[in-house]
Structure to design on (656 residues):
């Protein structure tokens, strides 16, 4: 514990250097902006800005890119409360009560509690990260290929389980993701696989064009030519500091939301969206006045907002300590770490302590910046939202094209982004969720290597996954998760779509 | 059987057929690459098993959609297929001409088309915004962020 605190102080020393402070500020501001704007999310933004960070030091770059991740959570809540428009999928729940509070003249209190809740949850998750990540990394040194394989299988199963529609469809998307992710040279024999003689595919399909297509361009295509008139309800914002009664009602939900978000965010594949719905449902169930929910209950803002921020912080733990991304956003960050010549995994903390502790300290500073800056900037975000969507959509397409092109300076990546935009649109049409595809796409090559190494190690015995206690536990958990839907409608995602 | 149900069944069968074909292709490609054995998995190992799992899952999804009364196709309101086709075509042209004509010119043409033709924003305004977008994005990405953008034969 003492060692961690000393390391954290060392991290602050790095994060407080002027250039790192500047990049942290740019990151959180960009994150808030994309959180405000519907259509382009933090994942696409990180992919877009990734090539711009090549000239920076890896620490400054990761500080900026992480700032985009958690900054987006703040931006999303602002528009949910003021305009009933979730800028981010993980801010949908905030609309339920936040917008009602704004209509009742309590926009300031809603924004205030959301900002304070996010800050408190951010702090909780950072301390969780400090305590858990090094411990988990030490523990993960015992992991061999079977444990990694089992862990990734568990992550993909959890994503499928949390699907809002069909588990089978989500699993299908995970399989398609694995197929697409494994295109390119075979990691063991270097045989080209499904490259069709194209040199550009030898390294596999890039994550950036896939994300740009699935999340950026597909979103625009869905709304192309549709006249959308945003009804902007921007009341005069006063009293951003919640009163004593607000604090009394919000303290418990905030604490529960933070803990729930943090622990669910630790699980590979969960992300920030589902925990937010769960925290709302939990608060409604625990409340003595559940009828207030949906009509402007401050608990309905405090808990989900704390929850989504804590979950985002927690997603950094599997990334930094195990080298396993649990969301599309952290998948891009994993790619960034590898581009900078770092090896994400249990040894990252030992080999690059300045990066690990510097990034953690910067997250705390970034959260503080967001708390101070977010509220005065609200009028600016409202003005940004007044820009007609027809203009924004054209710019989103342009940025996605630049983002797809710039990573490898290859027009093939633009074609890939276009193909994936069509796939994304069809997926929307036929109710297939993109999250399992993206996660499996990133995990695919890692999963394949771990599987093949395990089988070679065991001389072809699949029992290796059950003979080792850690992998057996992960496999058992995956089986339980898959069996649950067979025994009644107690699937979390299913219930969540009804709540939605 | 009403027409809505018939359409739903047809869509479910067509969907399953698509996924099964994809699974078959993955298995076929895997065999070509060399599946290897379970003790010594080859380059096609993961593709083969993924293909098999995909086929199985697609049949489960088919059975599920035939059994369920819920519509598996999401109704996207007012989706504009002709305009989507035009946008996609313009993006393909953009990719084709980007390195030949350079970033600024290609971006200007694309943005003018998207704003003027697709979004119907008026030509005068569209051309103004398109030129501003092309120049500011060039300045921001190429000059400030040092991202290399294609120059084309005009040199910008």
């Amino acid at each position: 514990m003492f060692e961690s605190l000393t390391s954290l102080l060392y991290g602050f020393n790095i994060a407080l250097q002027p250039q790192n402070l500047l990049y942290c500020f740019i990151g959180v501001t960009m994150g808030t902006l994309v959180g405000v704007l519907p259509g382009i999310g933090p994942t696409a933004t990180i992919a877009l800005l990734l090539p711009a960070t090549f000239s920076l030091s890896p620490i400054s770059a990761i500080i900026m890119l992480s700032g985009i991740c958690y900054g987006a959570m703040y931006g999303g809540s602002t528009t949910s409360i003021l305009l009933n428009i979730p800028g981010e999928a993980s801010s949908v729940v905030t609309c339920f009560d936040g917008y009602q509070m704004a209509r009742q003249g309590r926009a300031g209190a809603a924004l205030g509690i959301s900002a304070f809740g996010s800050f408190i949850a951010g702090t909780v998750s950072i301390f969780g990260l400090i305590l858990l990540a090094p411990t988990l990394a030490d523990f993960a040194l015992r992991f061999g290929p079977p444990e990694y394989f089992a862990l990734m299988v568990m992550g993909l199963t959890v994503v499928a389980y949390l699907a809002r529609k069909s588990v089978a469809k989500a699993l299908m998307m995970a399989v398609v993701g694995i197929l697409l992710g494994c295109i390119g040279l075979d990691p063991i024999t270097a045989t080209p696989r499904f490259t069709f003689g194209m040199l550009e595919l030898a390294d596999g399909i890039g994550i950036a064009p896939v994300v740009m297509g699935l999340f950026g361009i597909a979103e625009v295509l869905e709304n192309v030519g549709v006249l959308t008139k945003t009804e902007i309800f921007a009341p005069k914002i006063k009293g951003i500091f919640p009163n004593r009664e607000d604090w009394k009602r919000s303290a418990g939900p905030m604490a529960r939301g933070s803990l729930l978000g943090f622990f669910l965010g630790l699980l590979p594949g969960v992300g920030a969206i589902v925990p937010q719905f769960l925290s709302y449902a939990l608060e409604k169930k625990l409340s003595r006045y559940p009828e207030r929910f949906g009509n402007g209950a401050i608990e309905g803002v405090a808990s989900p907002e704390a929850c989504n921020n804590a979950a985002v912080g927690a997603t950094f733990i599997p990334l930094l300590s195990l080298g396993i991304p649990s969301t599309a956003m952290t998948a891009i960050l994993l790619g960034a770490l590898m581009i900078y010549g770092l090896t994400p995994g249990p040894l990252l903390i030992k080999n690059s302590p300045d990066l690990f502790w510097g990034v953690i300290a910067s997250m705390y500073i970034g959260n503080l910046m967001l708390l101070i800056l977010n509220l005065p900037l609200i009028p600016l975000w409202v003005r940004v939202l007044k820009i007609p969507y027809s203009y924004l959509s054209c710019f989103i397409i342009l940025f996605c094209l630049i983002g797809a092109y710039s990573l490898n300076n290859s027009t093939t990546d633009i074609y890939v982004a276009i193909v994936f935009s069509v796939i994304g649109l069809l997926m929307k049409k036929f109710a297939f969720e993109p999250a399992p595809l993206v996660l499996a796409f990133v995990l695919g090559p890692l999963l394949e290597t771990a599987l093949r190494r395990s089988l070679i190690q065991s001389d072809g015995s699949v029992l290796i996954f059950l003979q080792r206690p850690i992998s057996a536990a992960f496999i058992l958990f995956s089986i339980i998760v898959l069996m649950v839907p067979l025994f009644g409608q107690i699937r979390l995602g299913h219930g969540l779509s009804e709540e939605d | 059987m009403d027409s809505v149900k018939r359409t739903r069944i047809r869509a479910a069968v067509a969907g399953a057929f698509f996924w099964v074909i994809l699974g078959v292709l993955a298995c076929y490609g895997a065999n070509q690459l060399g599946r290897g054995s379970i003790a010594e998995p080859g380059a096609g190992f993961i593709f083969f098993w993924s293909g098999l799992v995909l086929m199985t899952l697609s049949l489960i999804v088919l059975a599920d959609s035939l059994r369920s009364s819920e519509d598996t196709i999401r109704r996207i309101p007012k989706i504009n297929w002709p305009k989507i086709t035009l946008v996609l075509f313009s993006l393909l042209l953009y990719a084709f001409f980007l390195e030949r004509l350079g970033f600024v010119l290609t971006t200007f043409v694309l943005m003018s088309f998207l704003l003027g033709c697709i979004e119907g924003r008026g030509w005068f305004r569209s051309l103004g915004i398109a030129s501003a977008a092309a120049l500011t994005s060039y300045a921001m990405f190429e000059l400030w962020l040092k991202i290399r953008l294609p120059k084309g034969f005009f040199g910008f």
Summary: DSSP finds five helices and no strands in chain B. The CA atoms of residues 142 and 148 of chain B lie 6 Å apart. Chain B has two domains: 3-67, 81-144. Chain B touches chain A through 65 residues (CB under 8 Å).
